[in-house]
Automatic annotation (TrEMBL):
Belongs to the PTH family. The lineage of its organism: Bacteria, Bacillati, Actinomycetota, Actinomycetes, Micrococcales. The gene is pth. This is Peptidyl-tRNA hydrolase. The active site is at 22 (proton acceptor). The record marks 96 as: Stabilizes the basic form of H active site to accept a proton. HAMAP family: Pept_tRNA_hydro_bact (MF_00083). InterPro entries: Pept_tRNA_hydro, Pept_tRNA_hydro_CS, Pept_tRNA_hydro_sf. Its main location: cytoplasm.
Length: 194
């Protein structure tokens, strides 16, 4: 039987937050589901899930979007990991990252949470930090805007123009991470764009 991977897009629930920078993780999970023609359904772990495959005969993908606010994402993630019997090493968390420029993706496994409360809560709930992270760069605000307000703002016009490319690249990174491992995905997605 093919191994299962839990792919979680972090964000906040509801239309108010749908297209904000903080929800870029959920937008990437939407892209992964759309590529496979899958829709989301409610799950008892307080999340919306779509069960699919990397490709026919490939790894099983459980695409998930917690129904909770970002900072308390851990409960749904741990609940889904338990329900589907997925170890932390097969959990991929996709989230926004202030310290990476917009249009940039970085991947890593383990380590600290870097001040990201959603990642912190997932690590606490899983009792492990040994899950993969696909960090989608949103950059820092220019000027004096509070980063806490910046992440809750919708993407700006120039960002929106490039957002489909960014979401596609991040979805590619997730697929490659599952298929070929972290190093191969890092080598491809950490390289400067040509």
């Amino acid at each position: 039987m093919a191994e299962a991977w839990l792919i979680v897009g972090l964000g906040n629930p509801g239309p108010r937050y749908e297209l904000t920078r903080h929800n870029v993780g959920q937008l990437v999970v939407d892209e992964l589901a759309a590529r496979r023609g899958e829709g989301f359904r409610s799950h008892k772990a307080n999340a919306r899930v779509a069960e699919t495959w990397l490709r026919p005969g490939g790894a099983k993908l459980i695409l998930a979007k917690p129904n909770t606010f970002m900072n308390v994402s851990g409960g749904p993630v741990a609940g889904l990991a338990k329900f589907y019997a997925v170890e932390p090493e097969h959990v991929v968390v996709i989230h926004d990252e202030l310290d990476i420029p917009f249009d940039t993706i970085k991947l890593k496994t383990g380590g600290g949470h870097g001040g990201h409360n959603g990642v912190r809560d997932v690590a606490k709930a899983l009792d492990s930090s040994e899950f993969a992270r696909v960090r989608v760069g949103i950059g820092r605000p220019v000027g004096r805007q509070d980063p806490a307000d910046w992440v809750l703002d919708p993407f700006g016009p120039s960002e929106r123009k490039n957002l489909p490319i960014l979401l596609g690249d991040a979805a590619d990174a997730v697929e490659q991470l599952v298929d070929e491992g972290l190093l191969a995905a890092q080598q491809r997605h950490h390289a400067p764009r040509a």
